[in-house]
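P.,

For your records, the input lines for the assembly:
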Amino acid sequence: VGQENINTNIVTLTRYLNEEQTKYSEATGDFTLLCHALQFSFKSIAYYIRRASLINLSGLAGSANSTGDDQKKLDVIGNDLFIAAMRSCGRVRILVSEEEEEAIEFPAGPNAKYAVACDPIDGSSNLDAGVSVGTIFGIYKLSDDAKGTKEDLLRPGTDLVAAGFTMYGASAQLVMTMKGGPVNGFTMDDNLGEFILTHPDMRMPKKRSIYSCNEGNSKYWDVATREWCDTIKNAEKPYSARYIGSMVADAYRTLLYGGIFAYPADSKTPKGKLRILYECGPMAMIFEQAGGQAVDSNMARMLTVVPESIHDRSGIFLGSYDEVQLVIDIHKKHGISV
Ligand code: P6P
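Structure tokens returned:
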């Protein structure tokens, strides 16, 4: 081995989770076990995504999911892998998946104290194009009198105990945060088979002139949203447009570089397109805890929004603190504020 200085103090996700647990004397280890099952599901989904083209997993599976989208084979496999991991860890009581119309209830057990919401493969419509897709998840702790039914998930994002996403790009990147804690980024080392802490305590730039939205919908936007978009495009230093069309990829870039991601509710989709439980809520927690902001189309703080049903949707503006504040200020001028 050469003289280069080798880091021998590698912090894997496994080590990080175990060390976190020791900080809480009342910790039972249930949350840690749940997170180990989570990380296994990311590793196995990453494996299948990497091999998709090789073993011809791309293309349609021929079935439709709860919202009628054409299901790609990987959607089905990703969903099955995620459900198996959550069932087998024995710490999850109720699971909501984008791919399942109804919530999945696991048998009540003394340690099954968590509710999980997830989108196993978000952005999957881009899979065949080789665009980065990802898994988004949110974790709620059940109250002692919880019945273990879907109502246990119809809560504001401020109740989330943890949230995160894994982006399956050149390598699998996991970003996760626990309530009140730092946002940490982990990169999968395929040789070690471990997620390595590579981005400790991620903090967003307060502002950045990058905007990320599907302007093909702009004719349906409200006047305040159109004014916001015109304002940044006609700024003295016009903003750069970056839009991938896969929320995890657009969110990860926005988290790293700064800027704003927007999927406003509009006259075509009055409730918005993105789902509260497993897209908007978890992302809002991550961005807030990294120093950013997230609001819905009524300019309400995203984490205070309560879903009416498990697949309920919302408009969202997500990004650097000052970039979202500009949206809020322009909407306030138009009488849209909370
Ligand atoms: P549009 C992918 O289908 C997704 O759910 C998100 O990942 C992404 O941000 C959004 O929809 C893209 O939507 O209408 O711009 O194609």
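Two observations worth noting. The chain has a mean pLDDT of 93. The pocket of 6-O-phosphono-alpha-D-fructofuranose is lined by residues 122-123, 125, 214, 245-247, 250, 273 (CB under 6 Å).

Regards
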